[in-house]
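Give me structure tokens for this 948-residue protein.
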Amino acid sequence: CDSAEGFSVYAVSASFPRGDEQWTGQQRDGSSVSVQWSPSGQEVSLISEDYFPMYFVAPEKFLGNQMLSYGQNLSLSFRVDRRDTRLSAEDLVLEGAGLRVAVPLIAQGNAYPNENMQTYVFRLHDTADYPWRPTISQPDFQKLLHNLTAIKIRGTYSERSAGYLDDVSLVTARRAPGVPARWVERCTCPQGYQGQHCEQCTLGYRRARQELGAFSPCEPCNCNGHSEACDPDTGACDCRDNTAGLSCERCRDGFYGDATSGSSGDCEPCPCPAGATCAVVPKTREVVCTNCPAGTTGKRCELCDDGFFGDPLGGAGPVRACRACKCSDNIDPNAVGNCDRETGECLKCIYSTAGFFCDRCKDGYYSNALAANAADKCKPCSCSPSGTVGGQTSCSQVTGQCECLPNVAQRDCSVCQPGFFNLQSAAGCERCNCDPIGSTSGQCDITSGQCECQPGVSGRLCQRCEVNFFGFSSSGCKPCDCDPEGSRSGQCEEDGRCGCRPGFVGARCDMCEENYFYNRSAPGCQQCPSCYGLVRDKVNQQRQKLQDLQTLIDSLGSGEGSVPDEAFEDRLKEAERSIMELLEEAEASRGPHTHTHTHTADLGINNTLTTQWNRLQNIRGTVDDTGTQADRARHRVREAEDLIDRARQELDKAKDALGKVDIKPPSGTGDPNNMTLLAEEARTLADKHKMDADQIEKIARDANDTSTKAHNLLLRTLEGESRTSQEVDELNKKYNEAKELAKNLEKQANKVQAEAEDAGDKALKIFANLTSVPSFDTKALEDEAGKIKKEASDLDKLIDKTEKEYNDLRDDLRGKELEVRKLLEKGRSEQQTADQLLARADAAKALAEEAAKKGQSTFREAESILEDLRDFDKRVNDNKTAAEEALKKIPAINATIAAANQKTRQAEAALGNAAADARDAKSKAEEAEKIAAAVQKGSARTKEDAEK
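Here you go.
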């Protein structure tokens, strides 16, 4: 080769005047880090937080085909922020073409980095003087530069350190005028090669190993006689004669034969339809079609393929192209013989489908056979044999409804209709016929037919009371609860009374009758001794007096006429005197030596008198309350009467005003719409009066309700005091008067309402008459109507005021009730809050105790850790001393390496062709370098351990 002409020196550079120029940062594991650009220093930097190194990565303009940089320099300016820099064997890294080489930063005579910016120069060459590691040959180094994919420059060397890069320059060459690049060569190529560096194959040659690219050897093209040229890079031949393949080694699709024979007739057309491919069977040399059109098969594509039907050759009639069978997606696509190849009938339907096209559910199944989801396709009918006609298993294929027996329900005929049972009979369900009184509902057990009975009711139909129960009703039967000792049996009569043994009385037979006593020694009621007759006579006398007193009480308030309040009060006082006299007599009849039974009878009489006295007091209180209610009712009635009078007066005024209306004949100047408005206003006033009448009627009803409440209160009192009912005749009479007054008031209200409706009808008639009148003077009528409207408004305000007073009175009690409820609820809430606070206090106490325990444990652990740290600090100081001693040895080691290199060069110059000695010296130098690197790495690790 010789020097090539037309190439000049060119440098790819980066000086960072306006930014980072697309330089990036990268950690050793390949992850990206950010690069900082300094506008003042016009440099880029990397800052590390740990010991892991970071690299500056060159941008695209430094990469690609840089083979013209072989033997030239890569220079850069670099500084660090700390002197304790621990260099490595991979400070500058080149990658490309699957190769990777690296050198330390101080290789090729470069200095150690420090805080000052220094220039570093690296020769891109494979000789031993430029120790790129691993050592590669010249072709490999050129291959790496021919496809350079990465340039990495280490930027950080220790923890929390920074590296700064500037003025990166890669010397190369380009075709352009300028300083000649004498190192660029032009080679004389052997046969099969061409290009400046013989990097290309000539026509008729191809790459023997494509993966080597331009460094692959060239070899002649092999096209089996079907082409004279091939692609130099891929080796693909430009085939003819119906051949194909990288070397024209086979026939192209649609042809068959042996393409490697080298003649133009090697490949013949395939005897297959639609250009299908074919092949030759080696043993029989028979041509068989291998790629038939879709839906066909056979040696000559004469048959329909599986899943298709038709007659492609017309062997059974007209030619019919093969078509896919339509089985509604209800076949297994992996199965064979899914349909008839001639008719297309589906033969292997799945998902419980059937039919020519598998388009319906088979017998015993229902739903949509054409559903897209398999789960929604045909489902089993699952008809209940006991509930279907004739035990059928089929159902409607659309709805799935089975044919049910009488009174059987559900789609599958599996249950009886409500109110029926006995599905197992297979003849339909029977009606429950539950007793409507004794059962809780018309339902019964679906198997036994037992109805759901009320409490105490029994029988399948719930038609009778259980044993020892009575009172068959819609709420059930009540227990007799007969006393087992006093009754003949546990069963009672329909009224609940038990059948008693002799001497027992009471509904439950649980008491001894009069003149009988209970004997514990001989259980049962036995007749008292004859001496008890005297006591009985005395008791009867007291009973007679009580009867007389009852008669006196019953006469209170009785009489044909009304009894004045003074007379009623006198009768009450007379009753009180009689009771007191009877009490005194009863006390007098009790002697100091009275028999026990006599004393008991006197106590009973005394209790009866006390009860009568309390009844009289209750009657007095009831009379007072009823009087108060009657007074309120009278007050309401009077208010209603006043409102009625005012309403009547207003209606009279309205009638007078309407009578004074003078309808003049039309004058031709009035506005007919005025009368329409006037009639509407009259109608509104009539409606207003009707509303007033309704309000009066409501007040009347309120008065009636108040009287009714008083009457009900009185009835409740009389219900508890049935023996003194005659005492309230006067109150009943007052109630009847109030009720009659309320009825009269309601009649008057109805009358007012009727008058209001008449006024409305008259207004309507006036409106009807006025609609036919074109115009007239309405001034007087408008004034009068305005006056009536004002008076009606005043009346409306008065009614509202009365209603408000009533509502205030009613709401007053409601407000107090709500206030009491709120106070009660507030008390409950405060109690709950107190409970919650107490629970939180207990929890906080437990947490505090647990925290105290954990704090003591943590304190003990901290003391132990402190002791370990004190011992660790001593070990760190010892390691630091050893590391400093190792660092002191590094200059001597470096001097030894330099001396070894110098001796090697001297030996090469002195001995000339003594290559063996030179290699030996070189080996010793490399071994010394390895020792120095190992010592350096050991020192670095020792220092790192010390600094930890």
